[in-house]
Write a structure and sequence with these properties.
Elements: H1 16-22, H2 25-28, H3 32-48, H4 54-72, H5 85-97, H6 99-102, H7 110-146, E1 151-156, E2 159-165, H8 166-191, E3 193-194, H9 210-216, E4 221-222, H10 226-231, H11 234-260, E5 268-269, H12 288-311, H13 326-348, E6 351-352, H14 354-360, H15 368-377, H16 382-399, H17 408-412, H18 422-425, H19 428-434, H20 443-458
Parallel strand pairs: 3-4
Antiparallel strand pairs: 1-2, 5-6
């Protein structure tokens, strides 16, 4: 029978099928650095409270560091019978140090050990995701600065609505990503709490110094309830929720890139380096990177639902079901990072057809609201002004004309409030410039917002 740390109570060895079914080492091996980091802090604490000697702790720490080097260089083979990365490292430590290696697990359970490792891992991954978000935010600002005065149609219901600046449109995604970054920062506060010392579920009879371990591992505080410490996966669910919102933001950008790069829009052209071709149609240039980003959003949503469903109705405290938290968690982190890494260079290299964007503002009566505002500023109730402009639009549609082509007499046929200055109102540039309000699309406001962003980044 293969010796397991828990095999004393058992008379038969584990069936090979069960070993494979039960094992998580194929995916939780990525936690090896964090497991060793936590174990080193635990060993030093055991020496501090005199459960082991200082010399023993030094030998354990040295053994753990050598195991870390072995795993990093693929000199330590991980197999399913080891169950998980935590037991694999413990087994290797005992092989190196003999009985002394077995002392490391004093005062700790795999339950609180796993909870610690995942928190350590997520702490590092969140920082990396935040850096990637900042990189993408910076790219959005750069592209906005390069295209400050490019005018395009703004849309509601995917219908041309009002003229806006492309730079203003891009900065909308900057704001979304900023909120994603903030949510991750908030999530970190709940992740950065140290669970080690909870034991299997009830705490431990040993005089552990939990605050020392927390300080060693840069945690802000320790958990307050041992049952919750080992059974809590709220922080994983919260992170997956944040990742889902982030991916939703990216998918919206993907959709616009896909639409804008189509011949029907023709607003942009994606770089060949971020496009693919067709296996049968030689003329095709497909926005596959954006389409994959859009598609991977559903994958991240599914991971969130998977963990929520796994945790649904689980009684306290730890249950083996909770091993199922890691694959969707790891997959989400990999997916989010992969998308963020490719989006920045894809945006940086796209070509923008400024003339095509501006031309698109010529149809659809995009300045109709400006005309209604013009009448409202002349004293008409806005609802009356709205009705009058609606009749003007109908008049133009019937005759195949635009608002800019109407004579003053035609304008005054709808309302005596129209004067010759209406000519200045019905240009898309005037419409954009008129939105000179904080958060508006006027060029001076967009420039000011970019200056604010750059000033904030410097600080």
């Amino acid at each position: 029978m293969t010796s397991k740390p828990w095999s004393g109570r058992f008379n038969k060895g584990t069936d090979k099928l069960v070993e494979e079914f039960n094992s998580s080492i194929s995916f939780d091996k990525r936690l090896f650095r964090h497991d060793i980091m936590g174990s080193i802090a635990h060993a030093r604490m055991l020496a501090r409270v005199k459960i082991i000697t200082k010399r023993e702790a030094e030998r354990i720490v040295g053994g753990l560091k050598s195991i870390e080097r072995e795993i990093a260089s693929n000199r330590f083979t991980l197999t399913p019978d080891m169950e998980d990365i935590h037991m694999a490292i413990e087994r290797r430590l005992i092989e190196k140090l003999g009985a002394l290696g077995g002392k490391l697990h004093t005062g700790r359970s795999r339950n609180d050990q796993v909870a610690l490792d995942v928190r350590l891992y997520l702490r590092d991954e969140i920082h990396e995701i935040q850096l990637l978000i900042n990189r993408l935010k910076g790219t959005l600002v750069d592209v906005a600065k390069e295209n400050l005065d490019v005018i395009m149609p703004g849309y509601t219901h995917l219908q041309r609505a009002q003229p806006i600046l492309l730079s203003h449109h891009l900065l909308a995604y900057y704001e979304m990503l900023g909120r994603d970054h903030e949510r991750l920062e908030e999530c970190l506060k709940r992740i950065n709490i140290m669970p080690l010392g909870a034991g299997a579920l009830a705490g431990t009879p040993y005089p552990l110094d939990r605050d020392f371990v927390a300080k060693e591992l840069s945690f802000s505080k320790v958990t307050d309830n041992s049952l919750d410490s080992v059974s809590d996966r709220d922080f994983c669910i919260e992170l997956l929720g944040i990742a889902s919102i982030l991916m939703m933001h990216l998918s919206r950008l993907c959709e616009e890139l896909i639409l804008w790069s189509s011949q029907e829009f023709g607003f942009i052209e994606l770089s060949d380096a971020f496009s693919t071709g067709s296996s049968i149609m030689p003329q095709k240039k497909n926005p596959d990177v954006a389409e994959l980003g859009r598609g991977k959003t559903g994958r991240v949503y599914g991971n969130l639902m998977a963990i929520l469903t796994t945790m649904k109705a689980l009684p306290l405290a730890y249950n083996k079901d909770m091993q199922e938290d890691k694959e969707p968690l790891f997959d989400t982190i990999d997916t989010v990072k992969g998308c963020l890494k490719v989006f920045a260079p894809m945006l940086k290299t796209l070509k923008i057809d400024k003339d095509r964007m501006l031309k698109a503002t010529g149809g659809g009566f995009l300045v109709a609201t400006d005309v209604a505002d013009y009448l409202a500023m002349k004293g008409l109730p806005f609802r009356d002004a709205h009705h009058i402009v609606g009749m003007v639009v109908a008049y133009c549609i019937k005759r195949g004309r635009g608002l800019g082509g109407l004579t003053l007499n035609e304008w005054r046929g709808f309302s005596s409030a129209f004067n010759k200055d209406i000519v200045d109102v019905v240009s898309v540039k005037a419409s954009v410039d008129a939105r000179d309000i904080k958060g508006g699309t006027a060029l001076k406001r967009v420039k000011r917002r970019i200056r604010e962003i750059e000033r904030d980044e410097e600080n």
